[in-house]
Amino acid sequence: MTDRAVAVVRAGALTTVQDLGRTGHAHLGVPRSGALDPAAVRLVNRLVGNAEEAAVLETTVDGCALRPRCAVTVAVGGAPCPVRVDGRPAAWGSAFRVAAGAVVEIGAAVRGLRSYVAFGGGIDVEPVLGSRSTDLLSGLGPEPTAEGTVLPLGADTAVPGWVDAPPWPGPPDELVLRVRLGPRDDWFTAQALRAFATRAYRVSPASNRIGLRLDGPALERAVPGELASEGMVLGAVQVPPDGLPVLFLADHPTTGGYPVVGVVREADLGAAAQAVPGTAVRFVPVR
Amino acid sequence: MSTVGPRVLRVGERALLVELGGGAETEAFHAELLRRRAAGALPAVREIVPAARSVLLDGVADPDRLAAELPGWEVGPLHARAGGTVEVPVRYDGPDLAEVAALWGVSVDEAVRIHTGTDFRVAFCGFAPGFGYLTGLDERYGVPRRATPRTAVPAGSVALAGPYTGVYPRSSPGGWQLIGTTDAVLWDVAREPAALLAPGTRVRFTAVDVTAVATARVATEGVR
């Protein structure tokens, strides 16, 4: 076989196609979606000579195994993990060439949660509303991969001899999230806002691509009753009736009816998406 | 014409939430935003997301500046003719139609006449891609959600909740009162826009149900 495609041999817990997201359609109820750690996507794409927004694979916890049907350049980044090609160790964090039919094994994340696998030419599934991302909330884009899924690849790219890549800081032991309070911080008691800004939360195992769920002090409302549904942004910290904050990630709903106490800086969301359950989280209010 | 300033709230680094007094003001303000964007008089904004009583502007390059300008805007009245018009043919055969008619205190036929006689407008989308919240029904025709939501509402179901009418673009769980079914394609990613019922669109529902056909036949036969 000489067709430009890659077959999924082992899909792992959750391996999806992701790019930098589906923007401009929120008014139709379409979530942004896209990779949870976009800096990692940009880097692995640059390593294989792709445009930064090319579609890649996002793994979750236990990696995946892939068999390209053509010779292709591959780079793995994001959460560090062992990489093997036909059983032999290959590099994490730099580009390598894979022969047609070889099996690329992306191992379980050693630190962090989500590794990214870029192929020269990018994953070339049909875009939906301008993006190839799998959106788990609304079902847009390709299905999550399964054993036997075959993904088309774009035309091979020339590998740049030199890529300026800052060293990956790695997932933090304590996640520090800079947050701008509002728009609904006035719906909470002063005591709740103090707890939010000073106490430690922990990443809950119920977290997913829609939101990072947090265990810790429940935030008490000063304003009872219901909020009329309003537009939601990436990084919004929404507080449902149980008082436990949920940090909205890429597949978040476009509107919501629970008050948003604050919004986390976009630059901090990649680290949030790599934080394993149990990681300590602190919110630091900034202007 | 209104010059009463809306309340503008900052949302993170790049977004503004514009709070308005009510649904009508929100629809008028949303229409004003679209007019200004079409005229090139709005700074670049990635998303304009209307909701029940607010409009979110996301991906704003200079939110402080826009936040300072917005309250001074003259917002024109909502033109009845603004936006395209979509006709949605409906079989009024929903399992909750009789209950809705009872809540309204009218017969089923009268309930259908009320629904087909109303000019609707898509106020906003949410819940699922292409799920529009349509306003237009008189206040007294508001209905509660069902006490127990259904685990699967079929695609094309025409439904009521609160002041809104909506059409399920695909099968999903739902607690709205189902009054009918349409074959209209609500969501098609190959279409521009993908949503048949995009915000600002005017909508009329027309009855094509078998009951109506049967009633018409009975009427011509002179049997009442």
From TrEMBL, chain A:
<feature type="domain" description="Carboxyltransferase">
    <location>
        <begin position="27"/>
        <end position="287"/>
    </location>
</feature>
<dbReference type="GO" id="GO:0016787">
    <property type="term" value="F:hydrolase activity"/>
</dbReference>
<keyword id="KW-0547">Nucleotide-binding</keyword>
<dbReference type="InterPro" id="IPR052708">
    <property type="entry name" value="PxpC"/>
</dbReference>
<dbReference type="GO" id="GO:0005524">
    <property type="term" value="F:ATP binding"/>
</dbReference>
<dbReference type="Pfam" id="PF02626">
    <property type="entry name" value="CT_A_B"/>
</dbReference>
<keyword id="KW-0067">ATP-binding</keyword>
<dbReference type="InterPro" id="IPR003778">
    <property type="entry name" value="CT_A_B"/>
</dbReference>
<protein>
    <submittedName>
        <fullName>Allophanate hydrolase</fullName>
    </submittedName>
</protein>
<dbReference type="InterPro" id="IPR029000">
    <property type="entry name" value="Cyclophilin-like_dom_sf"/>
</dbReference>
<keyword id="KW-0378">Hydrolase</keyword>
Automatic annotation (TrEMBL), chain B:
<protein>
    <submittedName>
        <fullName>Allophanate hydrolase</fullName>
    </submittedName>
</protein>
<keyword id="KW-0067">ATP-binding</keyword>
<keyword id="KW-0378">Hydrolase</keyword>
<feature type="domain" description="Carboxyltransferase">
    <location>
        <begin position="6"/>
        <end position="197"/>
    </location>
</feature>
<keyword id="KW-0547">Nucleotide-binding</keyword>
<dbReference type="Pfam" id="PF02682">
    <property type="entry name" value="CT_C_D"/>
</dbReference>
<dbReference type="InterPro" id="IPR003833">
    <property type="entry name" value="CT_C_D"/>
</dbReference>
<dbReference type="InterPro" id="IPR010016">
    <property type="entry name" value="PxpB"/>
</dbReference>
<dbReference type="GO" id="GO:0005524">
    <property type="term" value="F:ATP binding"/>
</dbReference>
<dbReference type="GO" id="GO:0016787">
    <property type="term" value="F:hydrolase activity"/>
</dbReference>
<dbReference type="InterPro" id="IPR029000">
    <property type="entry name" value="Cyclophilin-like_dom_sf"/>
</dbReference>
